[in-house]
Every structure is written in structure tokens, then in C-alpha cells.
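Quick one - inputs below.
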Amino acid sequence: MHENKPIGDVMLSVDNISLSFGGVHALENISFNIREHEIRAIIGPNGAGKSSMLNVINGFYHPQEGTITYKGQTRKQMKPHEAARTGIARTFQNIALFKGMSTLDNIMTGRNTMMKKGVFWQALHLGPALNEELEHREFVENIIDFLEIEHIRKTPVGRLPYGLQKRVELGRALAAQPELLLLDEPMAGMNLEEKEDMCRFILDVNDEFGTTIALIEHDMGVVMDISDRVVVLDYGKKIGDGTPDEVRANQDVIDAYLGVSH
Amino acid sequence: MLYRETGQFKPTYQADQAIFPIAQDRWFITAVLAVAFLVVPLLIDDYWANAIFLPFLAYALAAIGLNILTGYCGQVSLGTGGFMAVGAFSAFKLMTAFPDLNFIIVVILAGGVTALVGVLFGLPSLRIKGFYLAVATLAAQFFLVWLFNKVGWFINYNATGQVTAPPVEFFGVLIIGPEATPPARYLFCLAFVAVFALAAKNIVRGRIGRSWMAIRDMDIAAELIGIRPLEAKLSAFAVSSFYVGMAGALYFAVWLGAAEPGEAFGIEQSFFVLFIIIVGGLGSILGSFLGAAFMVLMPILLKNFMVNGIGVEVVTAKHVEITTMGILIVFFLIVEPHGLARLWQITKEKLRLWPFPH
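Output:
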């Protein structure tokens, strides 16, 4: 699966993270790591704290305890836009596209942080600003090509069907050339064909660009098929961690999913 | 039949992202500009300049400014009148302090001063949104007008409380003052508005415009892909106020020639410009022009129709005019919330398929 980019060292490790909202403990003492070029799934029943975990990783929530070490740098908290600048991109469970903008503009926005030219050049739309715009346009066109969404390039995303919107959102995240890509339920609400497409894109992203992927997903078939390692959360606690086969055999995980008689 | 993009291939990205990618649109806009620059100056007289063209141009520029803030960045503002006053009084102070300064530089500097004031009053937008922000900008409106009324320095301690623009020559041609000819005043404003409208279009289709629209559409997602809300919102306030300030300078100096702060820059101005962008189309530079044309022309047409056409008394006509404008605005909000610009777009889409719509 990863002939070009073998799984490497630990890229991100979360250590003893605890996060609570008032009396609700969303995450309790969670530790796990993500290695370079791997596909790491985070699973668990509803309300297990999976999305909170992603929000902690990209700085949207600030945990009360614990640290996050990303590419050798340990931090307690950071702002979301700083996380974006260090190479972490994400998609959302409920699509968070810019509805009034076209597909092209949405994906171009993903490259905003890499564009530097000031307002005066922008106003002239000549010379450096134009070159910059065209250079990034070319990169974005490659993504559009990769995700097979050429036909909706100029369509406002508000008018697109759900499956395509999810794809555009993936495109926007990819535009930032992330090293770590966080996907929050990329296949929720899709039919089988759309799911297969999305799986193919995720595997291709991982394989071609070597992007490390952390994903939350409820479809166990998908998770067990495409991920290298799985971490299982339940009620804010970690109950399992390992390869898909190990997790499948883990008694705690089976209990959490199927319920257990007391 | 005539309006087709079939066969117009775009071999480069640059051609693809042109403002008017379809050739027929380019011909049309060239024709409009040619008429505006070459034909109108030959025909224009004092009435046409003062009643239609100068207010249209000044309000169009102000509407572009407000559209940048409200239409593109999603920050509602009711302070437009106050910011126009900042532009007007900056221009007045500059014109009286440095009579030899080129008027273009005066207007741009007036815009610059307004941009600074705009950023200052934009700071609350980092914390508050929607209606609450509208109220905060309303405070700017009242505070600024109060300031210009109270502090004599701004009006050069004129006893009448009014400011009058001194005559200004632009490369030997008088453009401001009672002696200035209508074509000179009109052409100066037109050139100014045309250049800055193009600049605004370029800004909104580039990186900065995309970051504004991202903040407007989904601010959390925008932040997570690396857009700083502080930078995006304050730059929108700065650029928007820059335009509104320049519009205020043209409005005061070239169009009115004399102004009194409370009257010329009151809250009605803020609402008038807001109506322009609502009727014209939020988030559209073209819409700013269409809206300004609508809001400036409609009262005149209504009045002419009622007074000269069916012989209604002038006072009654004024009342009917106000009511009709109100009804028209409500009608627009219901029928086409995206304004005239959207209607224009729909017409073009229909025209592409005409006469074989299926």
C-alpha cells in the first residue's frame, strides 16, 4: 500500500490530554501518536470524544491538561490559524464550505496563507500579484483534476449535491499542501459509490502526496480496510489502540460497540 | 442568439479569470464606457450633472465601499454617512491648508484618513457580529457627525457652521467651484470612479477578497484554514472606509460644493447607501452601480411622471415618491434578495440559451 512512502517516525503525539466543559469530561487522559505517512483512524460510539480530539489537535479546543508534540515541538495550546500554518488541515463533519463562492474560489482560499502580495499589487492585478495568482491557480487546477471535479469548477458550492461538497472540502484542505490531514467523517451520509470514490481519494492522497491522515469514521468496513492503525475512544477514554486486526479482537472494543450485560 | 460563449476558448488561466470572460460582455462594457467618456460630456448640462450624474458617481463609489464591508466581508455597517463626513472634512482641511496640492492626491489622502478612522471603529467587529455590530457602527455615525459639528477646527471656525469647497484647478481646468463646467466636473468624477471600481474588482477577486468572503460565509472554517479574522476584518474596514471616504470627498467637493455636517452626512446617508447595495446586489461591484443608478434615477423619474405627466402637486408628489421608494425596496427584497446584479445575471443566463431554452 505504501510503496513510495513507508510509514516513518512519530509525527504527532498527544500525551495525557484531558478536556472538560464544566462538569462534562469530553476527554480523559488520552495518549496516542500518529506516524508519518500513515492513515490513522479514530473510532468510537457517538459522543466518545472523537471530534473533540481533532479539535484539540488543530487548536480549536484548548485542553486543560496534557501536551501535544507536533514535528518535535511541544505545545499546550495554539490558535487554529497557527495550526494551519504549521501544516495541519482538516475537513468538517458538517460541511463548512464557503457557500457563496465557486468551487475554484473555495479551493483557492485553501492556498491563501501561501499568497503574500499586498493590497496595492492586488488592486492593480498586474505583475507579481497576477503571477502569484496564476501560479496558485495551476496548483489548484491539479487538485481539481485529481478529485475529478472539473465540471463544477465555476459553480457556487451552495448549489452542489452533498457528495460533491464533501469532495470540494477535501480539495480545499489539500490545497494547503498539509502534512497532516484531519478528516472528520468524510463519508457520512454518502451512498456506496460515493464512499468508494472517497476511499480511493483518501488512499491516493496518502500514497501520492505522502500526506499523513487522521480520520474519524463510523463505517467499520471502511475503517478496517483503509487504516493502518486505529485508536478507539469511548466516553472520553481510550479503550483500544492498534492495527485493525488487534482492535477487532479487543474485548473492550467489542463491549463498547455491542454493549455488555452486567 | 447573439450572446454565446460557444467557440470562445480560453487557452490560459489568465484569459479564463478575466473580469469579462465572454467577448460580447467586453464589447458591451466598452460601448458603455465609450458613451460615458465621449458622448455624455458633449450633452451634459448643469441639471444633468447636479441631479443625476454626479450623485450617481459619488453614491456608486460609496456603495462599492459599503459593499466591500457588508457584501463581501459580511460586516453590517450603519456608519457610512459618518465615514463619508470624515472623507469630506479631510478633503476640506487638505484643500484649505495646501491649496496647491493636486486634487487627486487630496481625495486619496482623504480616503486614507477615513481608512484609519474606519479601522478604529472596526475594532468592535472582532468581538461582535450582526445587529450588535450595526449598533456599534451607528455609534460611529452619530459620534463623527457630532464631532464635526462641535469642534470648530474642522470647519475652520466658520461662523455659519458650513464648509465651502474652494475653487480647484486640475491641470488648468477648473473642476470645483461655481465657475467649473459640468463636463469637467463629470469627467473628473467618472475617471476617478472608473479606475477605483476596477481596483475594487481586482481586490475582491484576489487573495484578499477571498479571505473576506471566507470570513463572511463561515468564519470558523476560515480561521481553521489559516485566515486571521483580525487581519481580514480590519482590512475590510480599511479598504471599505477608504472608498467611502473618497466618495465623501467627491460628494462634498465636486457635487455639493458646500455642506453642513448634520444635514449632508446624517443617518439618512447611511441608510441610502445601504439601500443602494441591497437593491443593487450584495457582494457585487456591478450591483453597486446598478443600485446607485436605481436609487438616484427612480425618484427623479417618479417626480417627473407625477408632476409633469399627470399634474400632481409637487408636495403630494414628494410624499408619493417616498412611499413608492419604500414599496419598491420591500418588493425587491421579496422578489430578488440578491438585487439587480442577480437579475442581470439571470437575464444573461437566459439569453445564452435563447431562443432555444430546452
